[in-house]
Amino acid sequence: MMRLRIRHVTTYDYASPVAATTQLVRMTPRVDPGQRVLEWNVRLEVLPSPSRSLHQPPVSDEIWPSRAMSDPPTIPRNHRGMDEAHLGYASAPDLTANDDGYGNRTHLVAIVGPHVGTRLVATGVVETSALHHVFQDRPPSLPTSFWLRPTPHTRAGPEVAQFVREGVFGSWATAGPESHEKRLVELMHRVRERVDFRVGATDVLTTADESLRKGAGVCQDHAHIMIAVARSLGIPARYISGYLWPGHQGLTQASHAWVDAYVPGLGWLSFDPANACRPTSSYVRVAVGLDYFDAPPVRGVRRGGPRKEELGVSVVISPEPRAWGAAAVEGGVVAGPVPH
Amino acid sequence: MPSRPYDEMRGDGQHVRHLYGRVAAWLDATPSSLLARRRAEAEFIFRRTGITFAVYSDGGDPDRLIPFDIIPRLIDADEWDLLHRGLTQRVRALNAFLADAYGPREFIRAGHIPEALVTRNPAFVPFMNGFPVPGGSHVHVSGIDIVRTGPSQFHVLEDNCRTPSGVAYMLEDREVMMRLFPELFRTHRVRPISHYPEELLRTLQSVAPPNCPGDPVVVLLTPGQYNSAYYEHSFLADEMGIELVEGADLVVRDGVVHMRTTRGLRRVDVIYRRLDDAYLDPLAFRPDSVLGVPGLMAAYRAGNVTIANAPGTGVADDKAVYCHVPDMIRFFLGELPILQNVPTWQCARPDDLAYVLDNLADLVVKDVQGSGGYGMLVGPHATAATREDFAGRIRATPDRYIAQPTLALSTCPTFVDDGVAPRHVDLRPYVLGGGSGDPGSIDVRIVPGGLTRVALPEGSLVVNSSQGGGTKDTWVMEREA
Asked: Which fold has domain A132-294?
């Protein structure tokens, strides 16, 4: 058992004002067997455009077609949530909270009116147990066969197919549950051996096939590859995004991604191919999906503003003092590099 | 194929049915030259009104006029009564199936349908999982394609539960007939259909979301003027007296959908969307969609807006799922199906596949995800080479195909180049499903009749407008006193 205090801050800074921002945010730990959310809060702060009356934001839409806005700009009026050093940030009205069909908690961010920055602050405490790597879904969960659906990023292309042929993953059908688990562990190790952890080698649009060809990627790519292989072998698999407390070795804490795979007779098992290990109580599950695009912390569109934004992400995880002893006993320390 | 199909006017024989007595007399008394003149007038009216149907696949002027045939197709009161009951039952069962597919999935658990047909169906929308839709209705507007093969043999050829189009033609065909042939119309007691837009609006208002503050504000969301059915979108919005909007006209704020107006933002409660699921919301579906409304799905799940039809209804009209509709009627409603399916072979089953490949020359083969008559083989009319080519595709991905016997669709007298001659027809009634709270007994409204589609080339069985089909006005007769 472990208690983790988490603070996840995401800031977007724009060199010129943005006319509108809409985002779907997944930053709340899931209600899953093996973890309990003791407290959690997601807050949005908006930095309004300082000179909004002087010039209208240039309309160089990245996603929407250009179109003048007919409604007058409005700025959230609630200034109570003034935050630390970021003077000028005003906390926005309540975010609309929802379920996205996967049981992930979503918050909808909708800012209308010129702004030059936003800040999402998710904070809280989660209690995790080391046993959560085998479990059954809670209703209204999707049937396990749903998790066999291929997606563009987890499609078994030629590289994945070749990787499967090279492996010893065959004859799944005849193997028992324990041997399934053993083979999934082996698959996890082989993915890690084949694909170096290298930041910048890939981007969010990279597919499992491309990353495998490059032999490099980050946790998202490792997860996509393992999912692609598992599904091509008829094993339901899904993408997990969440937090990982890296223990004593790491100083920077991180957002992370790993994989669930379903073994009939056992249930869902978790694997972390990026670190080549099985998740422990150091892992906090935030969102599940068919691939990254179902489960990112933020998915958004904006109108106006500069071509690129300055994105800042900071995740700080610290075990609550009371649980220190327990964590050390369980060996919550994760070896290897800590991807972000 | 049987030598002679059932004829709507003459039945199985040479004698004109009582129903068609006055139409037959009118045809006998009217010279071809006059019919030709009236047809030209009709075309002129359609052209001036701007009723065109864009077909982009084969070059040339994409804004085509759908040919209109001036001879009406008649349905008597008993026939309509049967169809009405059958359609009501079928759409209620389809709706109950959808509520179940995104809810408890009891139909799957009871073994009535393979789980993969639902969960791995490309039309399945996980965002809908576990979400009880407002009023219990997923299918607010459906078009159920009916074919007739005998005096009382009506079959459902396919269900269209996504964004079926064509209802504007149903309404305009009637307008034109009343203008061109007032005398013929006066001698028949034809049940009116002009209240369809009112019924549609009432249906949409009946599914207002839980957080709707007052009288629901309804809008029609169109992909824009380049959509093949844009004329229909603007026509229906006009007739209902509601705003026609594009994605960029809508914005989600505080979890609520608003439309931009000249006087600021106005709350929107129900969206009749004529946009495919994949384009509805770039935050939930295709991230590159510029046609949709970011945040729409979150607003929907928050109970702040209703999307009609509900996303994910395509799971119910897949041609492989179609085979299971009679079972749905028994399972969800505890009733016997009133309208029969066309016998269907599923190529995913090895025995069926073998049969289909051996009998391609007699069968119609369809892509389970296809629509509009594309991706389809009409065995008897195809060359041996085309059949061989198609057989290869079936062998490669058998799951994608189903096959049906080449039905002797009923014929109806039609005015063609060499005079009045029988041509094959089908019927697409538009079924409205309003909220009642219970998915198995949604409030069904159907204006009498629907759109009769006619295959104009002699012998052709393909009625789709994208494949050269035309339309006819459909007259459902009042019950005689």
From this structure: C8orf32 fold (3.10.620)
